[in-house]
Design brief:
The complex is a heterodimer of chains A (about 270) and B (about 250).
Chain A: H1 2-15, H2 18-39, H3 50-62, H4 67-96, H5 99-114, H6 121-128, H7 132-157, H8 160-168, H9 173-210, H10 216-225, H11 229-257
Helix pairs in contact in A: 3-11, 4-7, 4-9, 4-10, 5-7, 6-7, 7-9, 8-9, 9-10, 9-11, 10-11
Chain B: H1 3-27, H2 39-51, H3 55-86, H4 88-103, H5 110-117, H6 121-145, H7 149-157, H8 162-200, H9 205-214, H10 218-247
Classes of the chains: A mainly alpha (about 270), B mainly alpha (about 250).
Chain lengths: ~270, ~250
């Protein structure tokens, strides 16, 4: 009797923690989902049984069904991120290296960053066709802004006094670049690349949903067209998990490479 | 010439140079007009669409969608953010979930909204409201959380009632941070509405762009793009101006 009361108190205490509330919320969502799906009281076709979604997800993980599409999307996102970093980091360094250049260029970049990049997709289709390259270009332009803006933010954080001290100590241009600027901007650049990856994923996959021959976004629209809702949900879940894992891996890698890496709060509005 | 005039001149010079290069490239035949419309031609087509076409009507639809999203996000977001702050356990449990949701490519789930609401503006509003909701919720919670307790203690020592404390101390203290969330929300809503209109081919300006691209009307594509860019820039400018006014 006493033991069962104790365990009940323990369970109640555990439920009153953030983890407990999160677990309870998940259970509640599952219960409501199944209830709606099975009783059909509200858009029954939108709530397929969870077991069906999980079975479909399992197919993606264990069979090569998704591989060609995954390869196309990875090529687009990887290429987009590479291109964005290739242009974004040097330009960010260049623009951020002089206050006068920054004053001229920064507002232009900020205004351009707010424009939804997907609307430039028709222009890329005209120039690059409907193959993977037009999607890669949308992803690249979406990722370019967070990368260049955060590189500029990093450059802005470099205090002149550090450069002066290094110069007084006899450091040359190369040493100043590698020992002063690089460590100072690394954190912001890494954050930019991480945010840029998210932007590239959204840009490229969203473009795939519009016009494509292959890719995860293309599959989403295919399933939507065929009204295979469970498959569509599982694919979305697959993409979210993949994006979260990539984000986590990048965060962990950059934390190892740069102990001072930190997230920027306000820059998010432009991406 | 003052420093600010010189900077502005440089800025306009860069814009003019880019436009001039694009114009020359098309007029001199370096780039086929099948791929790139001359900027002046795109501007003329945009003007024709405004005067004789339905560009104004489409812009009104887009603006209405943005306004609806903003209204939903603000009402629900401020209330939910307040609750997240008021009930610490709930706030602590859901904040991480909200941040994760915000950073995931939720926009790819738009077909679900098309199934639920049909191919209408309602689908665009429903999904875009989520993008506005989350920053407002997080900022509202943060705003209440970071109110200086001394302000509340001063209010209490002056025997203010709970209602007066809320009205005269809490609300003015949290307003600037909530406004930052509001600004963030508006930017995300704008991008989401225009993007979804284009991808799902519903609503206003984005749909126009999509239709023009579908029919390979190159000049109209560039005119639509010009309109979208102008709308985005105008929005950001107004947001920045209103923030300056609020902070004053």
């Amino acid at each position: 009797m006493n033991n069962s009361r104790k365990s009940r108190t323990l369970i109640a205490a555990q439920l009153q923690t953030p983890l407990g509330v999160q677990a309870l919320t998940l259970l509640l969502i599952i219960a409501v989902w199944e209830l709606i799906g099975r009783t059909g009281i509200l858009f029954a076709e939108l709530f397929p049984p969870l077991i069906e979604i999980m079975r479909s997800l399992w197919t993606y993980v264990t069979t090569p069904l998704i591989l060609p599409h995954l390869k196309a999307s990875l090529y687009e996102v990887g290429g987009a991120l590479g291109l964005a970093a290739l242009f974004g980091i040097p330009l960010g360094i260049l623009w951020g290296s002089r206050t006068s250049w920054l004053e001229i260029v920064e507002p232009l970049i900020l205004y351009a960053a707010v424009v939804p990049k997907i609307v430039i997709f028709p222009v890329f289709i005209l120039f690059l066709g409907i193959d993977v390259h037009s999607k890669l270009a949308v992803g690249a332009i979406a990722a370019f802004f967070p990368i260049s803006l955060l590189t500029i933010a990093g450059m802005r954080e470099v205090k002149q006094v550090y450069v002066d001290v290094a110069r007084t100590a006899g450091a040359g241009a190369y040493q100043i670049a590698t020992r002063v600027y690089l460590p100072a901007i690394a954190g912001q650049v890494f954050t930019g690349i991480r945010i840029g990856m998210g932007a590239a994923v959204t840009g490229a996959l969203l473009a795939e949903t519009k016009v494509a021959k292959a890719g995860l976004g293309f599959m989403i629209v295919e399933y939507y067209g065929q009204f295979r809702i469970a498959d569509m949900y599982s694919l979305l879940l697959f993409i979210f998990i993949l994006a979260a894992l990539a984000n986590w891996a990048m965060k962990a890698l950059f934390a190892r490479l740069s102990p001072s890496a930190r997230a920027s709060q306000d820059a998010g509005m432009y991406f | 010439m003052s420093e600010s005039t010189r900077i502005a001149a440089w800025r306009w010079g860069i814009i003019f140079a880019v436009v001039a290069v694009a114009e020359s490239a098309v007029r001199l035949g370096w780039i086929s007009s099948f791929f790139l419309a001359a900027p002046t031609r795109a501007a003329v087509v945009l003007w024709e669409q405004i005067v004789h076409g339905n560009a104004l009507w489409l812009t009104a639809i887009t603006l209405l969608e943005i306004a609806a999203c903003l209204a939903i996000s603000t009402v629900v977001g401020v209330f939910a953010g307040f609750l997240l702050w008021r009930y610490k356990l709930i706030g602590g449990s859901y904040e991480m979930f909200l941040a994760a949701l915000f950073s995931s490519p939720v926009i790819l789930a738009y077909p679900i909204f098309l199934v639920t609401f049909g191919r209408t503006s309602a689908a665009v509003i429903a999904l875009s409201s989520i993008f506005g909701l989350i920053p407002i919720m997080i900022n509202t919670k943060g705003a209440f959380q970071n109110v200086n307790p001394i302000l509340l203690q001063v209010g209490a020592s002056m025997n203010l009632t709970r209602k007066q404390l809320f009205r005269h101390i809490l609300v003015p203290a949290v307003a600037p941070t909530i406004f930052s969330g509001f600004r963030l929300a508006l930017t995300y809503i704008l991008k989401s509405v225009l993007g979804l209109e284009y991808v799902a081919q519903v609503g206003g300006v984005g749909m126009w762009l999509s239709d023009a691209a579908f029919m390979f009307k190159v000049e109209e594509v560039y005119a639509g793009l010009l309109g979208t860019i102008t709308l985005s820039i105008l929005f950001l400018y107004l947001i920045n101006r209103s923030e300056v006014l609020v902070r004053k």
